[in-house]
């Protein structure tokens, strides 16, 4: 699955799924612009990319930061082919325990961040008449659970955003894919990466391989939705 110097932006790239995806895509020929808020972790990632990863620290919900990320891709590589909206945070509490600050911060990253980065990239993709926008959502974009009101609300919002965006840009030659993962063993969970209870979960590398498959399909093929779970998780 050689990506033949395709230029990819990945948000939330400093750890977990984003980091694993950046490394795998770089190993398969892509030029990756990796962004996240943690500049130190991004720089470490950049050094592991063998010249195929460029780190640009920034807040995914900040328009100036994401404009700079897109401009970096254009300045360094002359084009932009794929945008992977991967940045995400989660708060899992009952409704009356959630603070307004937690609500706003979660929505800012998961929903506003998806909008801001996508909007920053769209003029370039439209001018090219091609491109691929991937949104790493969750299987909870399609179901709810007790204690998940905030997180599921943010993922349902991403789902609605993708649905409308898909109808807008498909006639322009731009693909949109929603990725819906089940449980992943990553820093995202409260127990942390590598906990014994998570040993049967998907790995970040599993998700990276899924992303590689999705974006390396022929030009006439689009995977609109990609649902993936660990075998141990009921579906």
Automatic annotation (TrEMBL):
Residue ranges occupied by any Ketoreductase domain in the UniProt entry: 6-187
Domain of life, per lineage: Bacteria
Matches recorded under Gene3D superfamilies: NAD(P)-binding Rossmann-like Domain
GO MF: oxidoreductase activity, acting on the CH-OH group of donors, NAD or NADP as acceptor
Keyword terms of this UniProt record: Oxidoreductase
Any single GO CC term annotated in Swiss-Prot or TrEMBL for this entry: membrane
PANTHER family assigned: DEHYDROGENASE/REDUCTASE SDR FAMILY MEMBER 7B (PTHR44196), DEHYDROGENASE_REDUCTASE SDR FAMILY MEMBER 7B (PTHR44196:SF1)
Protein family membership: Belongs to the short-chain dehydrogenases/reductases (SDR) family.
Protein name: SDR family oxidoreductase
Organism: Fibrella aquatilis
């Amino acid at each position: 699955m050689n990506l033949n110097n395709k230029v990819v932006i990945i948000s939330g790239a400093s750890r977990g799924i984003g980091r694993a995806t950046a490394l795998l895509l770089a190993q398969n020929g892509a030029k990756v612009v990796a962004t996240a808020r943690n500049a130190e972790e991004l720089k470490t990632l950049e050094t592991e990319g063998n010249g195929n990863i460029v780190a640009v620290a920034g807040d995914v919900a900040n328009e100036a930061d994401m404009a700079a990320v897109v401009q970096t891709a254009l300045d360094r590589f002359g084009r932009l082919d794929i945008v992977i909206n991967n940045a995400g945070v989660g708060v899992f509490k009952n409704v009356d325990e959630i603070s307004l600050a937690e609500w706003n911060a979660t929505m800012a990253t998961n929903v506003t961040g998806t909008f801001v980065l996508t909007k920053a990239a769209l003029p370039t993709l439209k001018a090219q008449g091609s491109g691929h926008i991937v949104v790493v959502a969750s299987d909870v974009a399609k179901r709810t659970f007790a204690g998940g009101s905030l997180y599921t609300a943010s993922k349902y919002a991403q789902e609605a955003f993708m649905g409308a965006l898909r109808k807008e840009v498909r006639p322009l030659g731009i693909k949109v894919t929603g990725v819906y993962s089940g449980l992943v063993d990553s820093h995202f969970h409260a127990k942390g990466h590598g906990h014994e209870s998570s040993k049967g979960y998907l790995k970040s590398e599993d998700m990276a391989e899924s992303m590689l498959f999705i974006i390396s399909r022929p030009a006439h093929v689009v995977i609109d939705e990609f649902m993936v779970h660990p075998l141990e998780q009921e579906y």
